[in-house]
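Help needed: design a sequence for this.
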């Protein structure tokens, strides 16, 4: 539950610290005292959007923090543990907004994105606003309330997973088919491309090898002449290098007995002679291979031209032609086998649809059961809110949709009959704003009973009611306060009198500025505040007696024990 709220330099609040208690706490005060500012600050801690204008005009930044106790909120503890932000049963939230509009968020002193505050806040606090009856007209919210009441989330999660699978397979089918005409055109084009590439029959690294051969053939004359010249000088002429090296080796071998060093030199010359002979043989081989071949030269030039022309046509490098050819072969095979792949995907899609329909039917049955349960509770609550004989019904209709929805096949519609004998009409067609407000209150009270969120905030949801109905509203909230922490912003004395605790929010002038303060009221002060709410600024003995009587008659006046949320 919410333990405390600290606010500094936010709106007209210079510094404020509020401590909260279990049970139902009424937040009261004159209009404009700052109740909405208090809830606005709490909303920022729960991830609402920050505005630079919210910073107090004399300050550079606003600083808001709150402490929560999580012993009765396992979902929040699990979330903190999953995000490595846990701190036993305590949780500290903090938000800092600068005058430039920048915002920083912290959970247990660790910087986090604002989205993390929002995610965690959904486990900690649930806010019901005075204008919530407007959003209740939306079919989407009606479905959410029913699913929350019936605890349908596991089935919804299963449907969402199946919906994602179905979308993926459906997209694969569309990409594969792409229209029969497109597929036929693509096949024809691929076959034409492959016919040319197959005829070309390019080999890996062929262009590089051809370029080397072209350079050799183009310079064959110079290469042959060089080989012949060196063959003559090294071997064929009189006194060639081969003859001189051989004579030196022979002479030094004869002198080895007289001087071993000369013999060693002779052995080196013999080794050089062997290398020389091998080099001469290689020159002879090159000379024979390098015979001028104009026909081969012409063929190599034409082949290279064909390779380069084809590469330019496909806007790739010549070196990529072989790999491109293989890729085209693979694309054609995949496209030609598309019918088999398409049949496999369609079978998969049909299987997913079958599992989806089965899960959707199970959800439909559970929704029908939950609708009857929730409608009965709302109808019962309506009787206590001055709508005797009124009826509330939730219509769950299964739709035959072509595609799949991640919310199932049902349409959910809230129907109401405000008075006996009147037909059930859609909630949006209820004529009286006061009736709609009270029906909305009944729905919110029932929805609040279903939630596991420890702290529930009701912001003037009693607007538009009064008298005995207002007292009933207070009793409903007081009963919720036995199992939840309830913070109720109200202008009605009948509601405030039912609270276990009462906090008075006031605005005072301090020099040239204005300050907002919060005070926990004791029993005597509560009498005065309830009297003010009954009679305005002028409090008489009569209004005090009336206020004292209201407090004494309220179940929260000491008779009912409050369980810590």
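Sure. Designed sequence:
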């Amino acid at each position: 539950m919410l333990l405390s709220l600290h606010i500094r330099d936010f709106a007209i609040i210079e510094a404020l610290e509020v401590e909260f208690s279990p049970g139902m706490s009424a937040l009261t005060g004159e209009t404009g005292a700052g109740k909405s500012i208090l809830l606005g600050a709490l909303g920022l801690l729960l991830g609402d959007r920050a505005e630079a204008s919210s910073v107090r005009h004399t300050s550079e930044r606003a600083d808001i923090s709150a402490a929560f106790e999580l012993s009765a909120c396992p979902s929040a503890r699990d979330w903190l543990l999953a995000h490595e932000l846990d701190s036993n049963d305590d949780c500290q939230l903090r938000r800092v907004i600068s005058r430039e509009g920048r915002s920083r968020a912290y959970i247990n002193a660790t910087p986090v994105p604002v989205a993390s505050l929002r995610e965690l806040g959904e486990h900690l606090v649930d806010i019901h606003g005075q204008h919530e009856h407007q959003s209740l007209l939306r079919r989407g919210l009606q479905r959410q309330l029913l699913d929350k009441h019936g605890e349908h989330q596991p089935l919804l999660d299963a449907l969402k997973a199946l919906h994602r699978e179905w979308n993926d397979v459906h997209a694969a089918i569309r990409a594969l088919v792409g229209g029969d005409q497109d597929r036929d055109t693509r096949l024809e084009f691929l076959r034409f491309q492959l016919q040319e590439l197959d005829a070309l029959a390019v080999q890996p690294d062929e262009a590089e090898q051809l370029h080397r051969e072209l350079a050799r053939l183009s310079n064959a004359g110079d290469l042959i002449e060089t080989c012949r010249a060196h063959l003559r000088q090294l071997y064929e002429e009189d006194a060639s290098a081969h003859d001189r090296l051989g004579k030196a080796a022979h002479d030094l071998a004869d002198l080895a007995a007289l001087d071993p060093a000369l013999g060693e030199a002779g052995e080196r010359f013999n080794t050089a002679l062997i290398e020389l002979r091998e080099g001469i043989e290689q020159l002879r081989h090159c000379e024979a291979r390098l015979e001028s071949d104009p026909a081969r030269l012409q063929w190599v030039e034409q082949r290279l031209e064909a390779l380069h022309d084809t590469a330019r046509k496909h806007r790739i490098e010549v070196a990529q032609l072989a790999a491109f050819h293989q890729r085209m072969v693979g694309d054609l095979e995949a496209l030609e086998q598309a019918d088999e792949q398409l049949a496999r995907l369609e079978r998969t899609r049909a299987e997913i649809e079958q599992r989806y329909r089965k899960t959707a039917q199970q959800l439909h049955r559970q929704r029908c059961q939950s609708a009857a349960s929730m409608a009965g509770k709302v109808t019962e609550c309506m009787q206590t809110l001055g709508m005797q004989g009124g009826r509330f019904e939730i219509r769950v209709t299964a739709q035959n949709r072509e595609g799949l929805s991640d919310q199932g096949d049902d349409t959910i519609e809230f129907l109401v009959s405000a008075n006996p004998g009147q037909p059930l009409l859609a909630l949006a067609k209820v004529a009286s704003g006061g009736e709609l407000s009270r029906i909305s209150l009944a729905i919110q009270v029932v929805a609040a009973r279903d939630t596991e969120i420890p702290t529930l905030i009701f912001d003037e949801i009693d607007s538009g009611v009064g008298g005995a109905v207002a007292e009933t509203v207070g009793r409903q909230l007081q009963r919720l306060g036995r199992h939840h922490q309830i913070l109720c912003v109200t202008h009605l004395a009948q509601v405030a009198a039912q609270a276990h605790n009462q906090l008075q929010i006031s605005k005072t002038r301090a020099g040239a500025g204005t300050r907002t303060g919060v005070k926990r009221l004791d029993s005597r002060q509560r009498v005065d505040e309830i009297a003010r709410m009954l009679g305005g600024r002028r409090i008489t003995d009569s209004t005090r007696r009336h206020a004292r009587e209201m407090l004494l008659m309220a179940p929260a006046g000491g008779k009912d024990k409050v369980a810590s949320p």
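Residues 183-336 form one domain.
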